[in-house]
Amino acid sequence: MLRHTRRAFRPRVMSAAESVQDIHDGATIAGGGFGFCGFPFELFDAVNATKAKNLTVIGATMGGVDSGFGPLARDGQLKKAITTYVGENPLFTQHLFHGEFEVEFCPMGTLVDRLRAAGAGLPAFYTPTGYGTAVAEGRLPVRFAPGKPVRVAEYSQPRETRQFNGRWCTLEMALPADFALVRAWKADRRGNLVFRGTTQNFNLASAKAAKVCIAEVEEIVECGELDPKTVHLPGVYVHRLVCPPNIRRAAEFVVERKPGFSTGTGKNAHASRNLIARRAALEIKDGMTLNLGIGIPNMVASYIPPEMDVVLQGENGLLGIGPYPLPEEVDPDITNAGKQTITMSKSGASLFDSAESFSMIRGGHLDLTMLGALEVSGTGDIASWWIPGKLLKGMGGAMDLVVCGCKTIVLMEHTDREGKSRIVENCRAPVTGRDCVEMIITDLAVFVVKKAAGGVRSLVLTEIAEGLTVEEVKLKTEAPFAVSADLKTMPLAPVPSQV
């Protein structure tokens, strides 16, 4: 993707409707934002109003039922969506499952780096993310057949793979766009952009990947009024500025902590999911940098002792996640990777975009990650993103996290809603990663994955919940396991007291 930039370059200031008038049928649009955080609602509403057809949209998540990606799906404007996550948008998935447009699922770190590669003039790159899964081997869903039950009509093709220094990697192609729609806090009339909170996320990489970048901003100032040290995106990447009179700032999930409590645990500390989180908190050691996935892992932060010095990292671009906000502290521009409102740690935090975040992850700079799962096999394979015919959310950042070299712990309820074991001999659902899980914590037990001579991996039961027997755990566990000679009752982190 090459474009000509005029020497005396200044972006044009215009209305949202004017800015998207040349978005044509068949255009590819990269959208910034992570959930609703940093999402350019006004610009996407304007695209919806153009009635342009056969659009390819690129985004971290396909959020927005009434505004965002949902209306484009509803009104038959989509040809294809390239994304990492479709959960929490029933309107979008309804039309996807009816076979009305294609989908290209991509691990989150790979997706942002494909955009970054396009902006940097790099045609392709290799990554360990996705090797051994449907990403590399083919069999990702591309199009669904109309009708019920939900059935895949077309799958992806296998990718080229290559070994580097003994590690297998998958070839990924750069992902250029015709247009990028991004949202920033401030712009000057040169197009230099400043973002606030965690809104950098996918906005920076999307802007760089496009031939034409349209920025929705809260304020436009004169040239020279922005401190150069505060600029996150240089104006060379920005072509049009839109400053709506009533810009929409929203959080997908507003989560608060109650006044008088140091965390968001409330009164549910003894529910099964919280019990899992309380046990998992004991695996966190002083000085660690860690990533907590969505669901039960996000709950673990509520049970980390306040005197412990740890740093929580989010894929959306925050190092130093603090507690949930008090009602008066809620800021939709500060969220975690679960798209929940959050605060920044008072002991120090830094903000960046998702490309930087996944450089930290894949570069091996984390000590620990905790993830949710649908299934875990007896050898430590994990499946967390798709149950064909039943559930499809997308892999998010999990495929990147399981190859990053840090300790991986899975937190999940022991059985599904039908009472079937989630710890299985072999994963039946498409895997997120192979031979990567080192510990499983459920509401019934704790297992570690031991690696014997010759590389054979197997489960060992090390702890059981209070009041349970080994036989009861065996009855609810499909995968075979050994019992540790040091088997003990599962300890739990204390419930935080009121402050």
TrEMBL record:
Catalytic activity: a 3-oxo acid + succinyl-CoA = a 3-oxoacyl-CoA + succinate
Protein family according to the UniProt entry: Belongs to the 3-oxoacid CoA-transferase family.
SMART domains: CoA_trans (SM00882)
UniProt xrefs under SUPFAM superfamilies: NagB/RpiA/CoA transferase-like (SSF100950)
Source organism per UniProt: Leishmania major
Enzyme superclass (EC): transferase
Keywords tagged on the record: Mitochondrion, Transferase
Tagged with keyword Methyltransferase: no
Gene3D superfamilies xref list: Glutaconate Coenzyme A-transferase (3.40.1080.10)
Protein name: Succinyl-CoA:3-ketoacid-coenzyme A transferase
EC number: 2.8.3.5
Catalytic center residues: E315
Entry's Gene Ontology BP terms: ketone body catabolic process
Entry superkingdom: Eukaryota
